[in-house]
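Request: When convenient, would you put together a sequence paired with its structure tokens?
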Amino acid sequence: MQLKSWWQLSADIAMSGVEAQRVMTLRFLKLAAGGPKAASEAGRMVAEKVAASAEAAATLASGGSPQKVVRRYRSVIRANEKRLTKRRR
């Protein structure tokens, strides 16, 4: 792997940490509110973790790159942020 690739991977991992922190805050707020929506979110979190680790393992086992795994994680994190910030009426 070239130096530029390592720097880009490092930057992507750092950004995923920032993005994940925002999602964690939104999720904790939802959990703190309690009720059926909180229970649903808790279940979703566990299911997502299991699915994400299996998907990452499969990607790497089939010759995929760490960059591909990080890009996928970041897209899921952004989708969660969008879902959690959507206004409900």
Q: What stands out?
A: The chain has a mean pLDDT of 94. The longest helix spans residues 3-33. The chain has one domain: 3-84.
